[in-house]
Amino acid sequence: MQRRMLGSLWMWSVFLVVFSAPTSAQPVRTNQNPPTPLGKLVDVGGYRVHLYCTGVGSPTVVIVGAGYSFDWGLVQSEVAKFTQVCSYDHSGIGWSDDGPKDSCALRANEVHTALKNAGIEGPYVLVGHSLGGLVARVYAGKHPEETAGIVFVDHALTNLHAFILPGVAPDSGGKTHPPGEPESAPPAAPTAPPPPLLLKQVVSIGMQDDPNFSRLSSQDRDLHLWFTAKPRDQQALQANHEIAPQCSADADAILEKHSHPLGDKPLVDVDTPMSAGAELQKTLLSISTNSKEMVADKSDHFVMIDRPDVVIDAISQVVRSARNKTPL
Fold this sequence. Notes:
Elements (H helix, E strand, L loop, with lengths): L1 H13 L25 E4 L4 E7 L5 E4 L9 H7 L5 E5 L14 H14 L6 E6 L1 H12 L4 E7 L42 H8 L14 H11 L2 H8 L1 H18 L9 E5 L6 H8 L5 E5 L7 H4 L1 H17 L4
Parallel strand pairs: 3-4, 3-5, 5-6, 6-7, 7-8
Antiparallel strand pairs: 1-2, 2-4
Helix pairs in contact: 2-11, 3-4, 4-8
């Protein structure tokens, strides 16, 4: 029970801080000149986002977040050996320009426009980590004909009221109801809040705190530390929790219209021992009639550095299924 609670809390905390600022134990580059982009900046309608594509082959794998493009170095280098793969930095982080008010719909549109303007033809296999899983679902709902398959990597928790303080109704703005007084509308039954110390410890965890962060190349580590030290990036990443409710609502709306919105296109849901519950996994697998679950043992939330082999295997299976029109 404690492990499940910690797993749910971990996923909940992702909405607060997906990638926190570097800890004092990690060296940070002092050079104020931005590093050279790995890929190219592509116009998406008055501003540019960074798109980094390697490898050749079809279908193209598109990593839609939620972190930085260079956080996927261990995965992208291997996927590029069997097909084309592109990673992307959403507006407001990395080399990408600032954009309009952030949302999963905006990120889906940024990816769609960037791929078109860069001449990257679809359909695409979408890979979404954490909040990026919701971006992938929104993209597939908007552009089903451009979606060849999906890989979820520790998909974000969608029950945003899983941890609300007793006496505080959802969307109440933090206002409490005096004990014994009737409410105009009964709030959802709250779950006991997590211990404050535990919450503080989990929320403070960032990718650079993962023991496997050192597996990334020195270049990718330096890029991660350089950009996460920037106030602009910190603000953009820490605002993920603000867009999460609408992201979840948009993704759920697609499921309400179609019982299997992806049809029989391949879908793999990569979980971890800390993933947040069977009900969410059941929902994710129902998106396609051609789906399967894979568990990345010995992994926490940042599966792309803890168990890149599992992520690569999942992507390979989806690509193969999409190419050959065969079940997973």
